[in-house]
Specification:
This protein has a domain of 130 residues. Strand 34 and strand 35 form a beta hairpin. The strands form eleven sheets. The protein has a 22-stranded antiparallel barrel. A five-stranded mixed β-sheet has the order 3-8-9-6-7. Strands 20-46-44 form a three-stranded antiparallel β-sheet, with no helix packed on it. The protein has eight helices and 47 strands. The chain is mainly β.
């Protein structure tokens, strides 16, 4: 064990009182904290009013003297009622305002470090897919792939998006709630494995207050960064309040773009029979000297949020909110495994912009004894980026070197017939729009029988555009009408969800409560557009499916099976089949998307093309029993079911995929013993028809259903407060494995358990992931712990804090070939240190994060799937090149921050 490891372990032991995780709540307020405003809440099911209301002042003073946690500060809305965390019979982790400030959390990666049940894959800020409790297959997040399995909410409104979890800047946030396990009853389709909710601080009536915070930091091996944030709350009238926050943050870079060059195959070497057997490396030479730069992966984020609270009368309140956030990135966030520390080689600038604006309205009121809530939102999220794809061409050149290289196998020529460089780059964009509306009714929470019921509607729209450019590419080799594009994806995707839901709770006795609920869901999802290569109109497919002698290639890649070749003709056949079998070759152009040559992601119905469609309906449920033997102790048992809708494979000829379902069996406890709070849960989950994606033919993402998987786990957390010392520890143990072999072909194509049948193309199937394969991304053990101590000094308080996050290794992919190419995600332990001083309305703090400068691996990828993780070329000769990309966390960072409240 290294000295650094010993130091990390020692600090971890000092900060940790137990291995623990799910009801990870905000740590109890230390004695130096500003008291929370006393709040009276409706009693939780099965409790008396005194369980959740602020206790009398003499009792509070006695509790404070004894170091007893003030539980009134941990009020959550995970069950869509305001309830004390300790009375909610589900596995909830909550990080409150004070703790978010203490840990200096401002983004997704930082707060998920504190949630042991949460794992994720990421490529760059804003391009992250989140998982919970090990329900992951890896490779998710493609814009035409599966919907997420974990829902994301900003206040009452869903912000779940495909292709990247919204990385909301964390400032002036009341709390972050993480609900582990299926939340299909109250939260629906994209909450199959869990839900993360970001709850903002709301405007306060009759109060003028604000704060300003600033930070500057230095990243080891990198540059300077910092942020400036501010908030203000103003009374407009006796019944109207306004609250706004604004932020600007620049994250310093730490990845170096180092010098690199490459010479492609040029002249082809032939044998006596004129078969290619190799190449001479005298082709096009590329060099990235113009783009060499240190610390080139920077991210600048700015935006703000504004809200009004309007009390129409004593029963009705409306809260309109708007939030805008704009992020601009440069560079990449990965290092190349075969280069030095924090180094990569890129051959062009790679800027990216990701922004969103959300308009939301919440209306709350009463009709008689019933609580009525309406929550509606509209979100607009456009993004665009440029990506260097040189390593893709380089990988294929080396792979095909025994056959003459990429220049011989493929066809890269200009209009005059001259060879051109095969280097590609991608210009991609998504324009995501989301409309959601929910109306729900709740009966009084102080009655022994309580009901909450509602209706939900959601429409998600995404205009997908991915352009693969090759400079100077001939028009005949390009996507038709789009010269210079070797490949084009341009599609409309629309996902519609409808639901009716309800839950009822009955107090059999003051100590025993039963809850049951269900959700009727209906989904209707469509994809329409074009994906693939172009096709030379003069190209004719022969009887054997190949080109006739004397005809030019169909496109630069020489493929006759994808793109324009698969566009739909007026006969209902594809263009390729129409040419081969002599039917009508007139393409249907009515209704094609702007910028596309024709439509091949569609169905032919009654002489017209219509979007490819996946729809269905069904039920999910939750049943729960709660027993409270005495004050401060609760046990619960839950059976719940979540689902994720089925979808569409954009590749022509491929069948779609069906919904998958997650069934959860869980036993949990919540307890408070004076200054100690201990919560936990043990669970078993069964995942049926698991959806997983991989790169298929022509590097198109394919989604198919596997068989089953099971997940066993335990989560627990401990919070302890005495005097100026607070200790928090949380952990999750996750054992997630497949049940039954996963075949390369979809289970609907080859139902044989040993994958001995044929795939959709009639080729032999094979085992892609054998039974018992560990599900990827999630470590078996993840632990987080924090120790904080504060004491009086002069006119204020001094504090020191140490935080530790440690997790084990994890597979990077579920398919055997992908995992072999990429390798595992490494284990790591990170240590953070803080020290500061608070006086009057001012505070200042110095910090060091990632004290021992560890390289925590967040994700692993290759530029073109397992094909670029090859160890042999096409002739079977060994290759030493390593194409793995490792997305690493931020190196050691030293900084100082200061703030002022008024």
């Amino acid at each position: 064990m290294t000295n650094c490891s010993v130091r990390a372990l020692t600090l971890g032991l000092l900060a940790t009182t137990a291995l623990a995780s799910p009801a990870f709540a905000q740590a109890p307020a230390p004695s130096d904290a500003t008291p929370a405003t006393p709040t009276t809440q409706s009693p939780a099911p099965g409790t008396n009013a005194t369980d959740v209301t602020s206790p009398p002042e003499p009792v509070k003073r006695a509790q404070a003297a004894a170091g007893v946690p003030d539980e009134t500060e941990i009020i959550i809305t995970a069950t869509k009622r305001e309830e004390n965390l300790q009375n909610v019979p589900i596995s909830v982790q909550a990080i409150g305002t004070r703790r978010l400030d203490q840990l200096n959390i401002s983004n997704f990666e930082q707060y998920t470090k504190q949630l042991p049940s949460v794992s994720f894959q990421t490529a760059a800020p804003g391009f992250t897919v989140v998982y919970m409790r090990g329900v992951a297959t890896g490779g998710d997040g493609n814009h035409t792939g599966s919907l997420p399995s974990v829902g994301s909410y900003l206040d009452e409104q869903p912000i779940t998006t495909i292709g990247g979890t919204l990385d909301v800047h964390i400032y002036d946030i009341a709390r972050i709630e993480s609900l582990a396990g299926p939340q299909g009853t109250l939260y629906g389709a994209s909450s199959e494995a869990g839900t993360i909710r970001i709850i903002t601080n709301k405007p306060e009536l009759g109060v003028t207050t604000g704060r300003v915070d600033a930070e500057v930091n230095q990243v080891d091996h990198g540059g300077m960064g910092g942020k400036l944030e501010g908030m203000i709350n103003l009374p407009i009238a006796s019944n109207i309040a306004f609250r706004a926050s604004a932020f600007y943050q620049r994250d310093a870079g730490y990845i170096d773009n180092v010098h690199g060059s490459y010479t492609f195959c040029g002249d082809t070497i032939f044998d006596a029979d004129e078969n290619p057997i190799g190449c001479v490396k005298n082709g096009f030479h590329i060099d990235n000297s113009a783009f060499v730069k240190k610390n080139f992966n920077t991210n600048t984020t700015y935006g703000g949020r504004a809200a009004l609270k309007i009390d129409l009368n004593e029963n009705w309140t409306i809260t309109p909110t708007i939030m805008h956030q704009h992020s601009k990135t440069h560079g990449v966030w990965f290092e190349n495994e075969d280069l030095g520390d924090l180094q990569t080689i890129r051959y062009r600038d790679e800027p990216g912009v990701d922004q969103f604006t959300q308009y939301a309205l919440t209306v709350e009121g009463k009709v008689g004894d019933f609580d009525i809530t309406y929550a509606g939102a509209y979100m607009d999220r456009p993004n665009h980026s440029t990506t260097d794809y040189t390593d893709y061409a380089e990988a294929y050149d080396k792979y095909y070197e025994p056959s003459g290289g990429i220049a011989y196998v493929y066809y890269f020529f200009d209009d005059a017939g001259n060879r051109i460089s095969p280097v590609q780059y991608i210009k991609g964009s998504n324009h995501f729009k989301k409309l959601s509306q929910e109306l729900r009714v709740a009966t009084p929470s102080d009655k022994p029988f309580r009901v909450i019921a509602g209706a939900f509607y959601q429409r998600q729209f995404n205009l997908i555009n991915q352009e693969y450019h090759v400079d100077d590419l001939s028009a005949l080799l390009s996507v038709n009408g789009r010269q210079g594009l070797i490949w084009l994806t341009r599609e409309h995707r629309i996902d519609r969800d409808y639901a009716l839901f309800g839950e009822a709770s009955f107090d059999v006795t003051p100590q025993l409560t039963f809850t049951g609920g269900g959700r009727y869901y209906k989904f209707d999802n469509t994809v329409f557009g074009f994906a693939g290569f172009g096709r030379d109109p003069a190209y004719i497919t022969g009887p054997n499916g190949k080109g006739l002698p004397g005809h030019p290639p169909p496109n630069a890649a020489g493929s006759s099976r994808t793109g324009v070749a698969q566009c739909i003709t007026e006969s209902g056949d594809t263009l390729r089949d129409s040419q081969q079998f002599g039917t009508d070759t007139t393409l249907i152009l009515d209704g094609r998307l702007d910028g596309t040559p024709c439509i091949n992601v569609a169905d032919f119905v009654d002489g017209h093309i219509v979007p490819k469609r996946s729809k269905g309906n069904g039920w999910t449920y939750r049943f729960n029993g709660t027993w409270k033997p005495h004050q401060g102790l609760m046990f619960y048992g839950t059976v719940s079911k979540g689902f994720r809708p089925g979808g569409i494979n954009r590749q022509p000829g491929l069948a779609g995929y069906t919904p998958d379902f997650l069934t959860n069996y869980e036993l949990g406890w919540k307890s408070s013993f004076g200054p100690l709070r201990w919560n936990g849960a043990i669970y078993h989950q069964r995942w049926d028809g698991i959806q997983f994606s991989f790169l298929g033919a022509n590097a198109l993402t394919v989604v198919q259903n596997g068989r089953k998987a099971r997940v066993n786990g335990i989560e627990t957390d401990i919070n302890y407060l005495v005097g100026g010392l607070s200790l928090t520890a949380a952990a999750a143990y996750t054992d997630a494995k497949t049940i039954g072999n996963i075949c390369n072909a979809a289970i609907s194509v080859d139902p044989s358990p040993d994958c001995s049948g044929l795939d959709a193309n009639g080729d032999d199937d094979f085992v892609s992931a054998p039974s018992g394969t560990r599900l990827p991304v999630t470590p078996k053990l993840k632990v987080t712990a924090t120790a904080r101590y504060s004491w009086a000094m002069g006119p204020g308080k001094t504090h020191v804090q140490v935080g530790v996050v440690s997790q084990g290794s994890a597979p990077s992919a579920i398919r055997t070939e992908d995992e072999a190419a990429q390798g595992k995600l490494g284990a790591y332990t990170l240590v953070d240190l803080f020290a500061g001083y608070d006086w009057n309305k001012y505070n200042i703090e110095a910090f060091v994060t990632n004290v021992f400068d560890k390289r925590n691996q967040l994700s692993k990828t290759t530029p073109c799937g397992a094909y670029c993780g090859i160890t042999e070329d096409v002739a079977g000769n060994p290759l030493t090149d390593d194409w793995n990309r490792i997305i690493v966390g931020q190196p050691r960072t030293i900084g100082i921050r200061a703030g002022m409240k008024f």
